[in-house]
Amino acid sequence: MTTSSTQTGYVIVETHQYYGEQDRRWLVKDDRGRAVRFASRADAQQHIDEYLDVGRYYTQHNEVGRPTYTIRAIAALPQYLQWQL
Q1: N or C, where is the chain less crowded by C-beta within 10 Å?
Q2: pTM of the predicted structure, to 2 decimals
Q3: For the chain, how many structural domains are there in total?
Q4: Are 38 and 44 in contact (CB under 8 A)?
Q5: DSSP, res 40
Q6: 56 Cα distance to chain centroid
Q7: Is residue 76 within 8 Å of residue 11, measured between CB atoms?
Q8: Nearest CA to 12 among 27, 1, 25, 23?
Q9: Residue 34: how many other CB atoms lie within 10 Å
């Protein structure tokens, strides 16, 4: 199967965990609401280290703690996240 240019690269999946509820996952987005794409895993990790996982974080109601971030290849995204691209 050939991957198109829209299926190359990496994205960051943000997971929020809540007490007694199912986890909520979505793609990290830019200021315009578009999924942020990265050319390499290293670029995505740098974005997590420098922008997402720093500073003070205020939890939402019933949220366990700070969200977790997972780097995923766009071509291997599960269908429930692909619609966010």
Answers
A1: N
A2: 0.86
A3: 1
A4: yes
A5: S
A6: 19
A7: no
A8: 27
A9: 11
